[in-house]
Write a sequence for this structure.
């Protein structure tokens, strides 16, 4: 029940899934799945270098779980690393 637009109780995971499926079906987007949004959020956060935020948002107990599943989206730009090291060792 809503009071002034706020819910008294949180939506349970099953309830959220059912609401999503109903809206998806009404919109005619059968291929949309709620779990894909979870991966989208995880992928985005890890690609921005926000590993701990991704781990917390995905409710992984250990950030290494997040790393195992999303390591492929980490930005690995060796040129940036080389530039940083050059500035560190050659401050002029």
């Amino acid at each position: 029940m809503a009071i002034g637009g706020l819910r008294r109780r949180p939506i349970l995971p099953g309830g959220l899934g059912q609401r999503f499926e109903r809206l998806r079906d009404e919109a005619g987007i059968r291929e949309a799945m709620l779990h894909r949004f979870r991966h989208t959020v995880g992928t985005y956060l890890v690609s921005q270098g926000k590993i701990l935020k991704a781990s917390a948002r995905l409710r992984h107990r250990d950030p290494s779980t997040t790393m195992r599943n999303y390591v492929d989206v980490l930005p690995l730009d060796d040129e940036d690393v080389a530039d940083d090291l050059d500035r560190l060792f050659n401050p002029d």
About this structure: Residues 33-92 form one domain. The helical segments are 13-27, 34-47, 51-57, 63-70, 78-89.
